[in-house]
Amino acid sequence: MHPPVSVIIPTYNRVGLLGRAVDSVLVQQYPAFELLVVDDGSTDSTPELLAGYGAAIRVISQPNRGASAARNTGISEARHDLLAFLDSDDQFAPGKLARQAEVMGRAPEYLISHTDEIWYRRGQLLNQKKKHTRQGGNLFARSLKLCVVGMSTVMARREFFDRIGFFDEELPCCEDYDLWLRASHWLEFLHVPEPLTIKNGGRSDQLSRIHRVGMDRYRIMALVKLLEQGGLDAAQEKLTRKELARKSRIYGRGCLKHGREEEGRHYLELAEKFG
Question: pTM of the entire structure?
Answer without folding.
Answer: 0.93
